[in-house]
User: Fold this.
Amino acid sequence: MLTRKTLFLADTPDFITLRSGVAPALLLSFTLADRARSLLSIAAPVAIPIATFTALPADALDVSVSPNAPRLGDTITLSIVSDDGTAPTVTVGDRDFPSFPVGPDRYRAFIPTTPLQASGARTIEVIDSGDRASLSVNVAARDFPVQSIWLPPAVNALQGTDYEFDRMDAFRAEVTPDRLWTGAFIDPSDGWISTPFGVRRYYNGEWAANYYHRGLDYAAGMGAPVYAAADGIVGLVDYESNGFEIHGNTIGLNHGQGVTTTYLHLSEIYVSEGDRVQAGETIGAIGSTGISTGPHLHWGFFVHGEAVDPADWQRQGIK
Ligand SMILES: [Zn+2]
Assistant:
């Protein structure tokens, strides 16, 4: 003869029948068991007889990291299993990063790394309402190309406007919960890459300590199409004539969950703020507005406001 316990644990179809067909004893024990979980954390002994009756999972907070061996400029992706029902928070140093649901009890968080950071281990804390996981992730150094750029003194002295930097900062700080991209990001131009990500520079013989090339340059003819690299919402459109002295005519796309892309130096802009765009849609045209030595697109890829190497996002896509 089956006990209630074996029926519950070993005979799922019968259990389901019983649940839907009013089995007061079982339903009661289920409710008590749910309560037992919160009781257990305060007064464990009281609830043990009830707890052994249930098949509820143990409180869990599991974290896995990709890529296996990140290098400076990579985006670290955390995959988190948490059964607390709320999205865990991720902390690295003095910065918090949000996580977003990707399935039942499953969350994902992105941590940007940049060429300006120190290589080596960083401690990542993942916290949900009941648990804390601490992990150490090593980020390897990477040699970025170094260029010497000589600009006419008048151009080298250009600082840009507060207006353009404030607007760009505010746009890149946007974090909206819906993931709008799917699969890999595409090239935003048919041109060839004239300057890769992360290049460090001397300007007129002086080492630019806070500079790294925060994106990819695509060289193409004046007026050639510029494509949305992924689905998103146009979060910024602005023009050299409004004070975008350095960036030139610019589009910013918000792809959700802290991922944004920017399109600089455009000659034409075909979208407006608030528009929803699709991957591959022509949003503007190659130009040379702002500080630019010839027609090209500067394409920036940002995670939580930091310019990261888009290579992984373009190759396999980070879902
Ligand atoms: Zn550039």
